[in-house]
Amino acid sequence: MSEPVSIHAVAKKAHCSIATVSNVLNRKGRVGEKTRQKVLAAVESLGYVTNSAGRNLRINRSETIGLLFYPSCAEIFQNTFYAEITAGLEECLTQAGYHLLLASYEASVAHTRVPDFLVRGKVDGMILLGAFPKKIIRRFCVTETPLLLLDANVDLPVDSVVTDGLAAGEAIVEHLVALGHRRFVWIGYTHEDDNIRLRKQGFLDALRRRNLPHVDRTSIEGVNDNAEFYRQIKARLKSKRPPTAVVAVNDGLAVDMMRQLQEDGYKVPEQVSVVGYDDDLLVEKVRPLLSTVRVDKKTLGRVGAEMILRRVANPEIPVEKRLLPVELVWRESVGPAYSI
Amino acid sequence: MSEPVSIHAVAKKAHCSIATVSNVLNRKGRVGEKTRQKVLAAVESLGYVTNSAGRNLRINRSETIGLLFYPSCAEIFQNTFYAEITAGLEECLTQAGYHLLLASYEASVAHTRVPDFLVRGKVDGMILLGAFPKKIIRRFCVTETPLLLLDANVDLPVDSVVTDGLAAGEAIVEHLVALGHRRFVWIGYTHEDDNIRLRKQGFLDALRRRNLPHVDRTSIEGVNDNAEFYRQIKARLKSKRPPTAVVAVNDGLAVDMMRQLQEDGYKVPEQVSVVGYDDDLLVEKVRPLLSTVRVDKKTLGRVGAEMILRRVANPEIPVEKRLLPVELVWRESVGPAYSI
DNA sequence: TTGAAAGCGATACCAG
DNA sequence: CTGGTATCGCTTTCAA
Question: Is A30 exposed, middle or buried (0-12, 13-18, 19+ CB in 10 A)?
C-alpha cells in the first residue's frame, strides 16, 4: 500500500534539498527556522522515518550492540538473574538510541570463530554474558570491535564489570562468625572466570584474616553436577567436625543444596546455615527464605550499557575493570551455629 | 589496524569486477570455475565478509527479525519457560541466516505507537512474546511488516502459534475425574489473550461434557495478585463442599498456590491436588513435583521461526493460527480426591 | 542559510 | 561468462 517514503519525498514536499532535510533531522541548527518548520511539517505529514540501512551505511555504524550469551539463551535465562540485567541494559541502550542484537554462542558462533553479525558490521560493540572460556574471548579480541564482559571477568585486556565478591566474602564471614560459625564449606563450579574466583577468594581471605583453622573447601569440575556437590557436603556433615554453614557461589546452587539437605532431614538453619549469591527471584520461592548477596541487577545492566557505549564512542581509552558494591541480605536460611 | 576490506579490494586482488565477486558470493553459478576459484582465494586471503549495511540497503531487507517482549524483558524471562522458546527461535532463525533484535514494549515502544526499529526497517518481521493488549497489537498491524504472536493469540488477522489448551483441559479433567475428583477450582488471570481463554475453555468444556455440576471458578482482574487468588481458594476450601483440585493457568501460579496451601497446613496432594501448565523448569524445584501440561518449548520457538520466515518470504499467504499438541505430565502434586 | 554532489558497500541489470 | 554502471537512502563536505 503505502510507498516507502524516502528523504527525497520529504525534500520535494518541503521544497528544499535532501541535504537540508538531513540537517534538520540531525545536526539541529544551521537551518533557517522557516525552512526547518516546513521540513518538519513534511516529515510529519508523510510519516517519514530515517531508513537505518541507508544511515548505517553512510555513517559506518549500526547503532546496535550485540548481546552474546554463553552457552545458550536457554541456559542464561534459567537464571532469572540475567533477566533483570538484560532489562537494565536494554533500557539504557534504547535511551541512547541503540538497539540490541541477541545471539548465543551455541547457535551463532560455535562454528565460526568470530560472530557473523560482528564481523559484518551489524553491531558496533558486543556484550558477553555468561561464563565464556577465555580462549573464546581471546578470539573475539582480534576484531577491533569493542567488547564488554558483563558479570564476568578474565585476565585479558577487555572491559568488564562485576560485583564485589571480595567484599561479599568478608561480610558473609563476619556475620557467620558472629553467629558462632567456625567451620564452613564453600561450593562453586571451577571456572576460569575471575568473577567467580573473586567470590571464593573473598571468602577465604576473610577466614584467613580471622586466623580460622583449616577451611573445608569443595570445588567440582564439570558442569551442573549438583548431585556430586551434595555428596561431598554430606560426607563432610557426617565427619567428626562437621561444617555448620554452606556458602554457595550463587543462589541456584544454594537453593538446590538446601533442598537436598532438607530432604535428608537436616534442618536449615537450625543445623546448617546456607548462603547464596545474586539475590535471584528464585530465593523467594523457597523456604526458608535464602540469605544471599544482593546484586543490583538493573544497575549492573545500566553500567554495562554505559561502559560499552563509552568505548564505542572512544575506542582509545584504557581498559576498565569495574567492581560494583553489593549488600548482604540476611533472611531465614542463616542462624546461630549448630552445636551438639 | 586492519583496513575494512570491501568488495572492491576483493575484485582488485582477484583481477575481476565487483560484479563478479558478488556473483560468486551470491547467485552461485554463471561464473567460470577458474574465476570463481580466484575470487574465493581472494576472499579467503583478505578475510572478506559482506557488509550488512551495504547489502541490506541494496536488497531492502535487514535479514533480522525483531523479538518484542511485553511488558519487559525482566518480566518475560521470569518465566524460564520463555528462555527455551527463545532458544528454539534463535536456533532456527540463525540457521536461516537471520539475526534477532531484542526489545521490550516498556523500554522501546511505550511512547512511540510503533516500534522504532520496525519502522526504520531494522527488521523484516516481528515476533510478539507476552500478553500484549489487543489494542497495541492492532497498532502494530498498520505496518506492512509481518507479525507473529508466539504463545499468544487474539482475534485479529495476525499469525499466531499456541499450544492446544483445549485438548489439555480435556486431558486434565479426564485424569482428575478418574481419580475421583468432582469439584475443582480453575485459576488464571483475566486476559484478552485467546491462548489463556482456550485453556479455561478446554477445562470448562471437559466438565460440561461429563455433566459435572456447577464448577467453581476463580478469575481475578489485575496483575500478579496471587495473594487474592489464594484468599479465594482458601475460602472455597473452607466451604461445605470444598474443591479437591486446583487447576492453574500456568506453573508459576500453580507453584505459588501450592506453597501457600502447604504453609497453611494443607497436604498436597493428599488433601488438594494441584495442576499447572507449561512444564517450566520451576516445577522441579518444588516438592511435591508439580503435575503439569508439557509444552515443547523448543518446538514452539522453532515453529514460530518458520512461520515468521515464511510470511516474510511470502506476505500474501492467508493468516495462519497454529495449535501445537501438548502432553500431560503427572507427577507428585496430583492424587486421589480427598474425602472426609 | 542552502544545495549539489560525492560516496558508503553491495546487488543486479544489461550489454558485450 | 564477465564487467560497467545505476541504484538503494543517507550524511557530509564544499561551494554558492
Answer: exposed
pLDDT in tens, A226-239: 888 899 899 989 99
Residue B19 grid coordinates: 560484479
How far apart, in whole angstroms, are the C-alpha atoms of residue A93 and residue A302? 8
Q: Which residues of chain B register pLDDT less than 70?
A: 1-2, 29, 213-224, 340
Chain B residues 22-61 with Cβ under 7 Å of strand D are 23, 29-32, 34-36, 54, 57-58, 60
B148-159 pLDDT, tens per residue?
999 999 999 999
In chain A, residues 205 through 244 whose Cβ sits under 7 angstroms from any atom of nucleic acid strand D: none
Compute the residue count for chain A. Answer: 340
Contact B145, B179 (CB under 8 A): no
Cβ contacts of B62 on chain A, cutoff 8 Å = 52-53
Spatial distance between the Cα atoms of A84 and A280, rounded to a whole number of angstroms: 9
Residue with cell 475421583: B180
**Mean pLDDT estimate for chain A:** 92
Beta strands in A8-146 (DSSP E): 64-70, 99-104, 125-130
What sign results for the dihedral spanned by CA atoms B48, B52, B58, B63?
A: positive
| pLDDT for A72 | 93
The whole-number pLDDT of residue A339 equals 78
Enter the C-alpha cell of residue A119. 564481523
Residue A48 has pLDDT above 90, yes or no: yes
- CA–CA dist A180, A64 (Å, integer): 52
- Kindly report, residue by residue over B207-231, the tens digit of the pLDDT: 999 988 656 566 666 556 788 889 9
Does the C-beta of A57 come within 7 A of strand C?
Answer: yes
Q: Where are the beta strands (DSSP E) in B105-242?
A: 125-130, 147-150, 159-163, 184-189, 216-220
Output the CA torsion sign for B217, B223, B226, B230. Answer: negative
Domains of chain A: 7-50 (1.10.260.40), 64-161+298-323 (3.40.50.2300), 165-295 (3.40.50.2300)
Q: How many CB atoms sit inside 10 A of residue A34's CB?
A: 8
A51-74 per-position pLDDT tens digit: 999 999 999 999 999 999 999 999
